[in-house]
Sequence to fold (94 residues):
Amino acid sequence: MVEAYSAEEGLRKYKETRPDFIIVDLMMEEVDAGLNFVKEIRLLNNKSPIYMLSTVGDSLTQNTDYSELGLSGVLQKPVNNKALLKIIQSKMQA
Fold:
């Protein structure tokens, strides 16, 4: 597992490690920093599943096609640990 505390740090660590699964917060150091991070790694031809954490997760999934944003899904905060583990396991087995 690799952690980053900003979109800039996340992009640098992404380039170094090319993770198999990505979880990103919508609002990191600034509003929409998470979406900007996702756009940047899409330009780098990312193939790993990306899930976004958000306090507005339910309304985001109802009002936005998250797949158009390059996301595999949106998780509502606080995250249900069991649900998150199931998602990770299913994506890692695929």
Q: What stands out?
A: The first strand starts at residue 22 and ends at 25. Helices lie at 7-17, 33-43, 57-63, 81-93. Residues 7-93 form a domain with the Rossmann fold fold (CATH 3.40.50.2300). The chain is about 45% helix and 15% strand.
